[in-house]
Design brief:
- The chain is an alpha+beta fold.
- Among the domains are: 81 residues, conserved putative lor/sdh protein from methanococcus maripaludis s2 fold (Beta Barrel); 141 residues, OB fold (Dihydrolipoamide Acetyltransferase, E2P).
- It has five helices and 21 strands.
- Helix 3 packs antiparallel against helix 4.
- Belongs to the membrane fusion protein (MFP) (TC 8.A.1) family.
- Keywords: Transport.
- It holds the Pfam family RND-MFP_C.
Length: 366
């Protein structure tokens, strides 16, 4: 009789445990499964930079080499106007010279003749003017004929003309007590020098004494390979770097393209004109030239920084609509500076994410 209460308590406890298990099972069955898929919200999308795919003629980058040369329109070759023997040569190759600066002097017997002609012509002017004035007085008094007066006027006019000629010769051929002075006609750099002291100089020699170049603008002479001729045209912008200034970029444009190939090396010669601030670029320097040339091909392009590169492929994060984005594989035809030209995967007008696109890509790709 003492065992019945114990059995009753055990049975009730077991019933309570079974009910708890059933309730717990029901509770788990009614809890929805958590959705872990990444979602883009409107507010998050509005905080991102959005870019639009553009369409334009594709650019090509052509890399060439060339040499710096003076601007021939700002370069002067100096030839001797007289014969003589060189005295002191006051400049050296590469010197900066000013307009009117004396470069050298020549001891020239011709200058003595020019000086004599100038002095004699001035004396003739004074003499013939005096005779003319006297003849005019005599003509008024009836002591000289019309013919005498006309002869005096003619002599005076000839003397004046000769004096002007002699003065012009002297003004061109400057001289002082040291002799004939070779002067700089323009300011610039002395880029050629063919004269030393005690050199005999002849006026009929075809060799110039000096060459002065204004280097505020210079040319870059470029050889264009036959395969690149169709890609460039006059006016194309270029960027130039020199070995002496590897971190400095000079901007210019193609100024001239020859119309025939060089028969020796089968290249086309082109010329680029650039500003030369501070005269940094010197004739003879080696230069690297980067030409951006347009092509007939129309391709959509985006900023290359908007692309995501993963597993040897390029991707863009494309906006489908409000808070809807997807990963789009793209093929890049070529890149020119910051532009990436797309051959497939995007079309003009598509909207792409241009900021935090790597974060979006990593979140969406799974």
């Amino acid at each position: 009789m003492t065992t019945y209460p114990y059995l009753k308590i055990t049975t009730i406890a077991a019933a309570f445990i079974a009910a708890a298990v059933v309730l717990q099972s029901c509770h788990h069955a009614e809890t929805p499964e958590k959705d872990s898929k990444f979602r883009v919200t409107d507010s998050f999308l509005s905080s991102l930079l959005v870019d639009t795919v553009q369409a334009a003629s594709a650019l090509s980058q052509i890399t060439l080499t060339g040499n710096i040369a003076p601007d021939e329109t700002k370069m002067v070759k100096i030839f001797p106007m007289v014969s003589g023997v060189a005295g002191i040569v006051k400049v050296q190759l590469g010197d900066v010279v000013q307009r009117g600066q004396t470069l050298a002097t020549l001891r020239s017997p011709e200058m003595a003749g020019y000086t004599k002609d100038y002095i004699s012509s001035a004396a003739d002017v004074r003499n013939t003017r005096r005779i003319l004035e006297s003849t005019q007085d005599m003509y008024k008094g009836g002591l000289a004929s019309q013919k005498d007066l006309e002869q005096a006027q003619s002599d005076y006019q000839k003397a004046v003309a000769e004096s002007k000629r002699a003065g012009a010769v002297i003004s061109i051929n400057k001289s002082n007590e040291n002799g004939y002075q070779v002067k700089a006609p323009i300011p610039g750099f002395l880029v050629e020098k063919n004269l030393t002291s005690n050199t005999q100089v002849r006026a009929d020699n075809s060799q110039n004494l000096f060459t002065i170049a204004d280097l505020s603008t210079v040319y870059v002479l470029v050889n264009v390979y036959e395969s690149d001729i169709s890609k460039i045209q006059t006016g194309d912008p270029v960027k130039i770097t020199a070995l002496s200034y590897p971190n400095k970029v000079f901007a210019g444009k193609i100024d001239k393209i020859d119309n025939m190939l060089d028969p020796d090396n089968k290249v086309m010669h082109a010329r680029i004109k650039i500003n030369n601030p501070g005269n940094l670029l010197k004739p003879g320097m080696f230069a690297n030239i980067l030409i951006k040339a347009k092509s007939a091909e129309e391709l959509p392009f985006i900023d290359r920084n908007a692309l995501v590169f993963d597993n040897d492929k390029n991707y863009a994060v494309v906006i489908d609509g409000k808070a809807k984005v997807h990963i789009q594989p793209v093929k890049v035809a070529k890149t020119v500076e910051d532009r990436a030209y797309i051959s497939s995967g995007l079309k003009p007008g598509d909207k792409i994410v241009a900021s935090r696109q790597v974060y979006l890509y990593e979140s969406l790709k799974d």
